[in-house]
Design goal:
The protein has 346 residues and is of the alpha+beta class. Helices cover 23% and strands 26% of the residues. It is built from 7 helices and 17 strands. The chain binds pyridoxal-5'-phosphate. Pyridoxal-5'-phosphate (PLP) binds next to helix 6 and strand 14.
């Protein structure tokens, strides 16, 4: 039987971005000062004590990455070592025991292998989204870090992000703050998302796709959206990305910076970006695992519209090239830098 025939019978183009329970997930438990062996399980439910640290004081971190089929029929993940490292940093930030990098990579492979039938076929634009996460499972009532944790990875297939072409987004400059200076903005923690929900719901109710968050201290500088970093392109084809200690270091953004410099020969600058200067940029995009780059057509700052010359119909030319090159690398059509693609033996 060919691998294709073994795939789940799903309408891959139309599965959207929703949770769909798959066959196996990974779990490892930290107790008495060490991580256990870890194993795959068929049970998608987590049973917790009512006083678990995650439920009371929100001690939780997560990651997001994708597995997909390449042109030659292999199944691969994209730079999972960076997810492992970033999760290690997030763990330290929330006073949790880091899960060892090699074990993280092995666990991702195990989950993909066990759910290979859920990896969408090459060319469908769909992928298998992997969600590693770690939370405090031990009881905590006085405020302190828990003594017990679970590290888990589940996966769910997700459809193509841009169905029928990438429509540029409209953002609003938010009156809410995402992350305080010297806070938790650079850790991938659920608590940063809990804080952003009110702003997200309001932006949607007001007809915007996303928020542009500013630095809370001065409100002069661009930070990021709730879940994606900014890339701007100047009228001279220079790529500019905001620098701030409270931005989450996006793996997609770091990869696009490399692609801009080494594949497209563009100059890239990471520096503080003033809200007041964005009207001078030619293109704007949001970077993250889900979409790679979503083009931004317009930013609305309290009624004042900032329209990028790339317009509201399609991606600007530089962002399109960045998108095509990085997705080409991911799907095996363009040669990848050493170490970027991890092939999973089935
Ligand atoms: C996950 C995340 C991103 C995107 O990071 P990628 O590694 O590119 O997926 C950007 N901003 C925030 C706040 C995030 O949580």
């Amino acid at each position: 039987m060919s691998t294709k025939a073994e795939k789940k019978d799903l309408d891959w183009q139309n599965i959207g971005f929703t949770y769909r329970v798959t066959d196996k997930r990974y779990v490892s438990v930290y107790k008495d000062g060490k991580w256990d062996e870890g194993q795959l399980t068929s049970d998608p439910n987590v049973v917790l004590n009512e006083c678990a640290g995650i439920l009371q004081y929100c001690q939780e971190i997560f990651e997001g990455l994708k597995a997909y089929e390449t042109e030659d029929g292999s199944i691969v993940t994209f730079r999972p070592d960076l997810n492992a490292e970033r999760m290690g940093n997030s763990a330290v930030g929330l006073v949790m025991p880091p899960f060892p990098k090699e074990r993280f990579l092995e666990a991702v492979d195990q989950v993909v292998r066990a759910n290979a039938a859920w990896v969408p076929p090459y060319g469908s634009g769909a992928s298998l989204y992997l969600r590693p996460y770690m939370f405090a499972s031990g009881p905590v009532i006085g405020v302190k870090p828990s003594d017990e944790y679970q590290f888990r990875i589940f996966c769910t297939p997700v459809g193509p992000y841009f169905k029928g072409g990438a429509k540029p987004l409209t953002l609003c400059v938010s009156d809410y703050d995402r992350a305080a200076p010297h806070g938790t903005g650079h850790f991938k923690a659920g608590l940063n998302y809990a804080m952003s929900l009110q702003a997200y719901v309001k932006a949607h109710a007001d007809g915007f796709d996303e928020n542009m968050f500013l630095d809370p201290a001065s409100r002069n500088f661009v930070e990021e959206t709730g879940g994606a970093n900014f890339l701007f392109v100047t009228k001279d084809n220079e790529v500019v990305t905001p620098k701030s200690d409270s931005i989450l270091p996006s793996i997609t953004r770091r990869s696009l910076v490399y692609v801009a410099e080494h594949y497209l020969g563009l100059k890239v600058t990471e520096r503080p970006v003033r809200l007041a200067e964005i009207a001078d940029f030619a293109e704007c995009g949001l970077c993250g695992t889900a979409a790679v780059i979503s083009p931004v057509g317009k930013v609305v700052d309290h009624g004042k519209e900032i329209c990028f010359p790339s317009g509201m119909e399609k991606m600007g030319p530089v962002i399109q090239k960045l998108y095509d090159t990085l997705t080409g690398i991911q799907q095996g059509r363009v040669e990848a830098p050493a170490g970027w693609i991890r092939k999973i033996s089935l």
